[in-house]
């Protein structure tokens, strides 16, 4: 029985297989390390993006929660849910009574994950200086699907790059193995060493006795094709960079314009939140904020502070007689008359009820406040607004009550307000269309 001759094995093939095996192991290790790095970078980017969302919308969301602006809160929740890294948004708004309001937006396909970051932050609002209120909580959940999608894209790029490097290395090893190819490899190496973006159009040529359709020729063709691709790529990149610079400049201009618009809108919204829409005077909220500051300032500095309360006489009858449109016009006229009298920079005129107005006079004693109240009553009489349903006059009149801060009596602003309100009640009891002051000689009776 004859033995079969051993199967011939090409040393070049064995060397190529060994090289490819080494490259495969190296590719797997490099891909594993770079994949791990890409995963960490993706989580860090997601964490930074969630933190940025908190900083960008935290203050505005806290204000909307304080104002219980449900539409605005829902809008912010929708905006946050559209952020690339966000998978779910939870907003909890505390209420004075009862369970908190809950708002939730979930990206389609999102599922809870233990690997993505979750950001929780308290929503705090400062209604006025020195006081901060916790109004709710914002919770942002990362989107694991987005993280995996980015990782797959990164992994594909890693594998492609490593595979190309492995194939190139194997080709070079084969070329070095063949002595007849060494000189051409050196020629190729010199050509590549001299290659710059300026001479990419110069093709690679090797001197051979005849053209051979072999690996070397394929390598030369590949290098030339690579040069052509690089030349095209650099041209496109230069064109894209120019376009990107133009877009960046335009985007910067748009951002500046949008920022200016938002700042203007924020100032307008702040002004609207503190202003009565009908009369243009300060509203009850603005009055409540200013009164406490002025009260504390007056007590600390030992300065006088006078509060005047005004009430339109028989205003309900006026509304019934002239309609709500007439009533609104009457309120606007009264507001203008009161504002026209209290013109000092520190004076505050506010509409604090349907037909009730308040005048806060920092630095004014009782006599000054009494004079101001009397001028307001006279200014109202001068308008001569007809009032057929009034029992005291043929025209619209005001009853006014005032009180001046007395530190031994007024421990808080509510006491001062109550004394002014009692004076107003006394003015109504005494026949309306007159001024009454707590702890002061009374104003002259209207003629």
From TrEMBL:
Annotated GGDEF domain residues: 303-440
Q: Per the UniProt entry, what is one GO biological process?
A: signal transduction
Enumerate the Gene3D superfamilies for this protein. Answer: 3.30.70.270
Sequence ranges assigned to domain HAMP in this UniProt record: 179-235
Q: Name one GO cellular component term.
A: membrane
The reactions it catalyses are: 2 GTP = 3',3'-c-di-GMP + 2 diphosphate
Q: Which domain of life is it from?
A: Bacteria
What keywords tag this UniProt record?
A: Coiled coil
Entry coiled-coil feature ranges: 223-275
What SMART domains does the record tag this protein with? GGDEF, HAMP
Q: Which PANTHER family does the annotation name?
A: DIGUANYLATE CYCLASE DGCM-RELATED, REGULATORY COMPONENTS OF SENSORY TRANSDUCTION SYSTEM
| Record-linked NCBIfam families | GGDEF
The name this protein goes by in its record: diguanylate cyclase
Q: What is the lineage of its organism?
A: Bacteria, Pseudomonadati, Pseudomonadota, Betaproteobacteria, Burkholderiales
């Amino acid at each position: 029985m004859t033995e079969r001759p051993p199967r011939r094995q090409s040393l070049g093939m064995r060397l190529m297989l060994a090289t490819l095996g080494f490259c495969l192991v190296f590719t797997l290790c490099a891909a594993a390390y770079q994949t791990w790095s890409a995963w960490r970078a993706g989580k860090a980017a997601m964490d930074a993006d969630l933190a940025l969302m908190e900083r960008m919308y935290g203050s505005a969301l806290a204000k909307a929660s304080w104002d219980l602006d449900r539409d605005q809160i829902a809008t912010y929740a929708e905006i946050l849910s559209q952020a690339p890294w966000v998978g779910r948004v939870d907003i909890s708004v505390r209420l004075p009574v009862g369970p908190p309001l809950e708002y939730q937006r979930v990206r389609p396909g999102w599922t809870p994950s233990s690997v993505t970051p979750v950001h929780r932050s308290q929503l705090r609002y400062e209604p006025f200086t020195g006081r901060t209120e916790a109004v709710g909580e914002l919770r942002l959940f990362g989107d694991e699907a987005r993280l995996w999608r980015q990782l797959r894209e990164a992994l594909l790029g890693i594998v492609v790059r490593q595979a190309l490097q492995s194939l190139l290395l194997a080709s070079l090893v084969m070329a070095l193995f063949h002595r007849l190819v060494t000189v051409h490899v050196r020629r190729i190496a010199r050509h590549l060493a001299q290659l710059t973006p300026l001479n990419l159009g110069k093709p690679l040529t090797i001197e051979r006795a005849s053209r051979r359709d072999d690996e070397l020729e394929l390598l030369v063709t590949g290098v030339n094709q690579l040069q052509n691709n690089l030349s095209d790529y650099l041209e496109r990149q230069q064109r894209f960079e120019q376009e990107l610079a133009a877009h960046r400049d335009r985007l910067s201009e748009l951002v500046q314009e949008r920022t200016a618009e938002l700042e203007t809108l924020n100032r307008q919204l702040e002004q609207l939140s503190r202003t009565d829409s009908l009369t243009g005077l300060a509203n009850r909220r603005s009055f409540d904020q200013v009164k406490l500051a002025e009260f504390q300032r007056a007590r600390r500095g030992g300065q006088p502070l006078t509060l005047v309360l005004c009430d339109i006489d028989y205003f309900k009858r006026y509304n019934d007689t002239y309609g709500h449109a007439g009533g609104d016009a009457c309120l606007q006229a009264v507001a203008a008359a009161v504002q026209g009298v209290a013109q000092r920079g520190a004076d505050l005129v506010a509409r604090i009820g349907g037909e009730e107005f308040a005048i806060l006079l920092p630095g004014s004693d009782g006599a000054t406040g009494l004079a101001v109240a009397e001028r307001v009553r006279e200014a109202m009489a001068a308008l001569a607004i007809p009032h057929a349903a009034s029992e005291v006059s043929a025209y619209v009149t005001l009853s006014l009550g005032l009180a001046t801060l007395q530190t031994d009596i007024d421990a808080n602003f509510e006491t001062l307000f109550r004394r002014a309100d009692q004076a107003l009640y006394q003015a109504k009891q005494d026949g309306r269309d007159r001024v009454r002051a707590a702890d002061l000689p009374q104003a002259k009776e209207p003629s």
